Prior knowledge:
Blueprint: H1 20-33, H2 45-52, H3 56-68, E1 72-75, E2 79-82, H4 87-111, H5 114-132, H6 136-152, H7 157-169, H8 171-178, H9 186-208, H10 212-236, H11 249-253
Antiparallel strand pairs: 1-2
Helix pairs in contact: 1-3, 4-7, 4-9, 4-10, 5-6, 5-9, 6-7, 6-8, 8-10, 9-10
Amino acid sequence: MTRKKSPTRPEAAKTGKGSGSSKAYQLLRSRIVSLEMPPGEDIDEQMLVEELGISRTPLREAMIRLAAEGLISLLPNRGARVASMDIPQLQEHLETFELNQRAVTRLAAMRRTKADLARIEALVAAFEDAHARNDVDGMVDGNWELHLAIGNACGNRVLAKIYANLLTESLRVARLAMSYETFPSEEARQAHLNNILREHREILAAIAAQDADRAEALACSHTGLARKRVTDFISQSAISTVSISPRAAPAALEGVATDV
């Protein structure tokens, strides 16, 4: 995947006291999730300090937060870089994510409240609205919000917290699943998105009916959509920015079950 040249960024306005860390967090998170800052890229702290008009302290606070979410790697005495996305890490992440997604979705079907269900239904509709507008960022963020709401409905705060962190780590995978530039054709992209839309509705219906077995099966299939997209992308692309060789992908992912 070739990194697109970014437009010249306007000089950032000086931030008010207490806002610098939040602003740095949002900026870095957006650039990492959009793949504007590709996996493995060193983070130029001085450039960000100058761009944002903040000191290094709030910037470091933002990077510590992003490191806790799995989006940045902090290197002792060497600064920080965007977390890598190589084959072993993707495989381990997707396996762990599937197990957690199945668990929280199953428990959400068993324990959800009326308020939980209303929130999930509203977010399914919001994702569909973003899709209708061809809003990639809206779909990525909307998908995160939707599954976060399902996690919060599981009735287990420890499990919900673990799932929330995994969801954040998955944001770059979600970008691969929804953006224009990572598909061989618009038809292929729409077919993939249609599967996501359908499964969102089916997961909602299973949670509404409190059908735990159905909800868990759909959660497993839904993770399979992400795995299939990653595998297809690796097979079709020379993604040097993700530190993966296309020839290595099938063997590296062999044995990881897919459900679609």
